Each structure stands twice: as structure tokens, then as C-alpha cells.
Amino acid sequence: MRIFKNRGDFYFSKTNKEKSNEQKILIFALVFIIVFTVVFLLITAVKNDFSAKEFFRPDDLEISNEYIQEETPLPEVEGKTNFIATVNSEGKLLFVSLIQVDLDNLSYKCSVLRADTVYDGNTFSSIYSNSSAENLKTAVETLLNTSFDYYFDMSSSAFADFYDEMGKVSIPFPSEIKYKSNSSEVPYSVKIKAGEQSVSGTAFISLIRYYLDTESYNAANELMLNSMLQHMNRDNLAKSEDLFNTFITSSESNISVRVFSLASDALEVLCDGRSAVKIYSAQPEYDGVDISKEGLKSIKGYFVK
């Protein structure tokens, strides 16, 4: 049957069956078109960034490789260097520290020894007072039958100032420490609360002496090692020349400017945050004022090169 005369020819299906088939065909065609369109848009969107960020990005914006910075690889270093450090108060030896910087295994090794340690019938303190820090170095080398490359000697006040210039360190204390020693030639006292505490140079010296007097040798070593770990950082690397100038003018040492210059690569590695530096405590064992044979053997094992 024709309807809407003069507006074109439109026809209704004569039967419901014909009408139903036409509807199915139209719906199927419509669904196919919609699905095809969605898939096409998704594929196109994957290949081309249609995000709002990309839409509003200026056409002339380009990403340059010069702004993509890669971390500079660390220099390759090797070797082991042994140091002897002594701290005194008005010419009286307070303690002796044996330190190794091991670049082969990237580690620090330390053994802190008492001033009254005896070698060949003489105490370290008397050897130091009657001759020099350099002669004490020779005595330690003979005692341990190993060589030490460098030594340095500082007064307690100069050491404390230098320590603070590098920055106070944070150390956890399991319990409170209250101690006062008036019987020693150089009196000192310690007062530290339990928990994480900021340790100054003066407190560091007193704590080392306290640990040695109470035969807590491992605690003395760990305090020294943790201080080294915290002081060797990027900030101190950036001002290393100024720090070395302070060190060289406030100590007696055989560490020269040339030695410092040659150590620049080692300092960069040790101060870089990417370097996982290990620490080893060479705990001494005393038999009275003598280091026991087993103790000497153990310490030598850490400092042999």
C-alpha cells in the first residue's frame, strides 16, 4: 500500500514475517556499524595519543635528549690502605685507632686500642710521649707484623672541632650512660640518654674512652665505624678540599696534599649514596694490659694487605 503521495514511495511489508526480517537485518547492520566504529577508534587511539594532555600540547613542543640525564658511572677503584689515628690531650695519649679502607671489598675495618696497651715492656702512651706518633706507628706495625701507610695525630679539641665540621652523627643507645672518671690523668664524663642521640665531637671522644675503660671494645669500634659511614657523604665530598685544609693544619700527619689528590676517586666512591659500604669490627682481646696472642692474630687478619 502506498502512503504519503507526492513524498516518494514508501511501502509497508504485507506480512508480519516480512516486517520482522527487515527489522532484524536493520538491527544487525546497526550493531555491526557501531562495533566497527568503536574498534576503529580504539585502534586509532592506541597509535595516536588522543589524551587531553596531548590535545592541549603545543604543536612545536619537542622532547630533547639533553634533558634526560643519566647517572654518571662511578670510577673503578682498588687497593687497601691502613691508617693509625691517635688523639691526645695536652700531650697525653687518649686512644689509638687502627683503620683500614678496603676498596677491593668496599669496606671499613676498625680496631680501637687502649693507651695503656703494652708493647715490648712499654705502653703505647709512654712510647707516644717519649718519642712521637710516628714512632708509635712503627711499634704497632712490629706488634701486628703488618704495615700501616699513614698516621695522623690530633689534640682532643682539634679532633672535636674537625668532627663537628663534618657534622654530628646520629647513634642509637640501648640504655642511658652516666659515667664520670676523675682518677685518670685526663678526667672526663659521659651523659647520654637512651634512644637515638646526636653525638658531637667532644661526646665522641668521651664515649670512646668510656667504652675502652669498661672493656666494651666492640662498642668503641662500632661508634668509630658508624661515624665514618655518616661523615663520608656527598655534602662533605663537595667541601672535601676545605675539610682537608682544616685537617692538615690541625694535625701531625704524613698524609700530604698529593696523597689527598690521588684519593679523589676513592672519596667519590665512598661518599656516593649508591655505594653500599660494609663495616667490620676488629675487636681486641686483652690479657691485662697486653693484647692476647689470639687477639693479635685476629686484628692482624683484618689489617693484612
Describe the structure in brief.
44% of the residues lie in helices and 24% in strands. It is α+β, with helices and mostly antiparallel strands and 305 residues long.
Question: What brief labels describe this structure?
Answer:
305 residues; alpha+beta; 6-stranded mixed beta sheet; disordered N terminus
Structural features, described:
With 305 residues, the protein is of the alpha+beta class. The protein has 12 helices and 16 strands. The protein has helices at residues 16-47, 52-55, 124-130, 133-144, 156-166, 201-213, 217-231, 234-238, 240-249, 257-262, 264-271, 293-303, and strands at residues 2-3, 10-11, 80-89, 92-102, 107-114, 118-119, 122-123, 150-155, 169-173, 177-181, 188-192, 195-199, 252-253, 278-281, 286-287, 290-291. The strands form 6 sheets. A 6-stranded mixed beta sheet has the order 13-8-3-4-5-14, with helices on both faces. A hairpin with a 6-residue loop joins β10 (177-181) and β11 (188-192). α6 runs antiparallel to α7 (217-231). It is elongated.
